[in-house]
Amino acid sequence: GVKDYKLTYYTPEYEVKDSDILAAFRVTPQPGVPPEEAGAAVAAESSTGTWTTVWT
């Protein structure tokens, strides 16, 4: 099955560390899409989402 992005990329309790690199994105969710899900989808794409080939 397909998991919601927010189940793996949304961690509101995360505390920022001095070593973290922060980026800001403006997101406008489509009608019916929760803001948390839209933001988590952006997080997925900006880490190892569909535009990145991952080699293991």
Question: What does this entry look like structurally?
Answer:
By secondary structure, the protein is mainly alpha-helical. Helices cover 32% and strands 0% of the residues. The longest helix has 14 residues, at 35-48.
Largest sheet data = none
Structural class estimated from helices and strands: mainly alpha
**Discrete helix count:** 2
End-to-end Cα distance: 23 Å
Strand content: under 5%
Domain count = 1
Residue runs with pLDDT of under 50 for 5 or more positions:
none
> Overall mean pLDDT score?
78
Number of beta-strand segments: 0
The outline comes out as globular
Using the CA coordinates, give the radius of gyration.
13 Å
Order of helices and strands: HH
Give the % helix: 25-40%
Question: How would you briefly describe this protein structure?
Answer:
It is built from two helices and no strands. By secondary structure, the chain is mainly alpha-helical. The chain has one domain.
Write the layout of secondary structure elements.
Blueprint: H1 6-9, H2 35-48
Subcellular location: Plastid, Chloroplast
Biased composition (Polar residues): 46-56
Enzyme class: lyase
